[in-house]
Specification:
Chain lengths: 281, 179
C-alpha cells in the first residue's frame, strides 16, 4: 500500500540516487570506455556522418552561391584585364615587327656601304598618274632632292620634293620615274621607266640583245643619283615582236609598294666614307 | 511504449544534430543546447515519469557525445526538468516572454551547477568564461526556447486542435503523489 501511494516519489528518488551514484563513480574512476557510452557513440556515429555531410552540403551550396554573386564582377574585371593585355600584346607585336623591318633596312645599308637615314611613311598618293608617298624626314634631317630611297631588297624610288620635316618620294612605278639600269646577266644597259600599276618597263635595249624572263634588273650607277648595284626587279615579259628598234621589256619590282612603312634614304654625299664612321640618324 | 522505444534514438539524433550544427555555426565556441530546451519543454508538457526518463536519456546521450563526465548532464537535466515541472505547476500562462525568461534562468542554473562542480571537484575556475560563453549561451537558449515552444504550439494545434497541457498543470500548485 505504501509503495503504491508513493511510487512516483520513490521512482524519482531512485532515479536521482542512480544519477548521483553514476556521477560520483565517474568522478572517482575514469570510465571513458564504459559499455553504455560505447553503444551510444556507436549509434551516434552514422547519424553524425549523415548530418555532417548534409549540413556541409548545404554550407557548400551556400558558399558556391556566394561565390557566384562575386563571379559576375570578377568576370567583368578579368575581361577588362584581358582587353588591356591584348592591347599590350598587339603593341609588343607591332614593336617586334617594326624592329625586324628596321633590322632589314639596317642590313641593307651595310650592304651598300652608304650612310642612311631611316624614315617613316606618313602618306601615300596613289593616283592614276602619280605614284608617290610622303615620309616624315626632310632637309632638317639631311635629306636632299634626288636621294635614292631603298627598302629590302632594293630600290623603290627617289626624293623629289624635300621640305624641312617631310619629303616626297617618287616611286619606281611612277610614269615620271626614270632610272639608269642594267640586266645583271648580260650587263646590257637601259632605262627603267615607271608604268603605274603594271610595274616598270626597261627601255632603249636593242632587239639584238639577249634578255630573258627572270633576268635581274639593277641600277647601273651611270648617273650621279643612284649608286651601282641597287636591285630594281626581275624581267617578267620580253616582247620581241613589237615594231621599232628596241625590245619591250616589262619588269616586276622586288618591292610591294602597298606595304611600305619604313624606308631608308641613302645619303649620296657620304658615299666614300668608311663604314666605321657611318651614322644612322 | 513506443515513446520509450523511440526516445533513445530521438535523443541521439537531436544531440548529434545540435553538436554538428554548433560546430559549423560557432566552431566550438558555443553549444547549441536544443536538448536543454526539450527538457524544459518536457517539464511543461510531459508527466513526471515520462519527463524524468526523457531528461535522463537526453542528459546521458549528451554526456556520451560531448565527452563530459558521465552522469554530469544527466544530473543537470534531471534537476532542470524537476525545476521546470514544479514551475509549470505554478504558472498557468505560457506567454513567450515568460518562457524566454524561464529558459534563461534554467541556462544560468545549468552554468552555475557546472561552475560549482568544476570549482569544488576539480578546483578549476570556470567563472572567467561566464561572460564569454555562459551569458551568450543563456541568451541563445532563451531565444531558441521561444522558437521551439512556438513551433510545438503550432504542431499541437495542427495535430490535436489545442495545446496538450496535462490536467495537473492548473496553476494552483497542486500535484498528487501518484501524478
Amino acid at each position: 500500500m505504501f509503495f503504491k501511494n508513493y511510487r512516483t516519489i520513490i521512482f524519482v528518488g531512485v532515479i536521482f540516487a542512480a544519477t548521483l551514484i553514476l556521477l560520483s563513480y565517474n568522478l572517482k574512476y575514469d570510465s571513458s570506455t564504459s559499455f553504455a557510452k560505447k553503444i551510444v557513440l556507436e549509434a551516434a556515429a552514422p547519424v553524425q556522418k549523415i548530418l555532417k555531410a548534409s549540413i556541409e552540403g548545404v554550407g557548400n551550396a551556400w558558399m558556391r552561391y556566394i561565390h557566384l554573386v562575386g563571379l559576375e564582377a570578377d568576370n567583368r574585371i578579368l575581361k577588362n584585364k584581358i582587353a588591356a593585355l591584348q592591347t599590350e600584346l598587339i603593341l609588343y607585336k607591332e614593336g617586334y615587327l617594326e624592329a625586324q623591318r628596321l633590322q632589314k633596312i639596317l642590313s641593307l645599308q651595310n650592304d651598300y656601304h652608304h650612310s642612311g637615314i631611316a624614315a617613316r611613311v606618313i602618306g601615300r598618293e596613289q593616283a592614276a598618274l602619280s605614284k608617290t608617298f610622303w615620309i616624315n624626314k626632310g632637309s632638317a634631317h639631311g635629306l636632299k632632292s634626288g636621294m635614292p630611297v631603298i627598302v629590302p631588297p632594293g630600290l623603290i624610288g627617289r626624293l623629289t620634293d624635300v621640305s624641312w620635316h617631310s619629303s616626297k618620294v617618287l616611286l619606281l612605278i611612277d610614269e615620271n620615274s626614270n632610272v639608269d639600269a642594267l640586266i645583271q646577266r648580260t650587263r646590257v644597259q637601259g632605262i627603267v621607266r615607271g608604268a603605274g600599276s603594271r610595274g616598270c618597263m626597261v627601255r632603249y635595249i636593242s632587239k639584238i640583245q639577249d634578255v630573258k624572263e627572270g633576268d635581274v634588273v639593277m641600277t647601273s650607277g651611270m648617273s650621279n643619283i643612284f649608286p651601282k648595284g641597287l636591285l630594281i626587279g626581275t624581267v617578267s615579259q620580253v616582247d620581241h615582236k613589237d615594231v621599232g628598234l628596241f625590245l619591250k621589256i616589262r619588269v616586276t619590282p622586288f618591292v610591294d609598294f602597298s606595304t611600305l612603312e619604313e624606308v631608308l634614304i641613302l645619303a649620296a654625299d657620304q658615299k666614300e666614307v668608311p663604314s666605321e664612321k657611318k651614322t644612322i640618324k | 511504449m513506443i515513446y520509450y522505444l523511440l526516445l533513445p534514438f530521438m535523443a541521439i539524433g537531436l544531440v548529434v544534430f545540435q553538436t554538428t550544427l554548433a560546430d559549423i555555426l560557432f566552431s566550438g565556441w558555443l553549444t547549441l543546447e536544443l536538448s536543454l530546451v526539450v527538457v524544459i519543454y518536457a517539464g511543461f508538457r510531459l508527466d513526471l515519469v515520462q519527463g524524468i526518463i526523457l531528461a535522463c536519456i537526453m542528459g546521458f546521450v549528451f554526456d556520451c557525445v560531448s565527452g563530459s563526465i558521465l552522469g554530469l548532464f544527466t544530473m543537470v537535466y534531471l534537476l532542470i526538468y524537476m525545476f521546470s515541472f514544479f514551475v509549470s505547476l505554478r504558472i498557468a500562462s505560457e506567454k513567450f516572454y515568460l518562457i524566454a525568461l524561464f529558459s534563461l534562468i534554467c541556462s544560468v542554473l545549468e552554468s552555475l551547477i557546472l561552475i560549482a562542480l568544476y570549482h569544488f571537484v576539480f578546483e578549476f575556475d570556470m567563472l572567467s568564461n561566464a561572460l564569454v560563453v555562459f551569458v551568450p549561451q543563456a541568451l541563445l537558449i532563451s531565444v531558441l526556447s521561444v522558437g521551439f515552444f512556438y513551433m510545438m504550439h503550432k504542431i499541437e494545434g495542427l495535430m490535436y486542435g489545442k495545446t496538450m497541457r496535462p490536467p495537473q498543470r492548473t496553476g494552483t500548485g497542486g500535484i498528487s503523489a501518484a501524478a
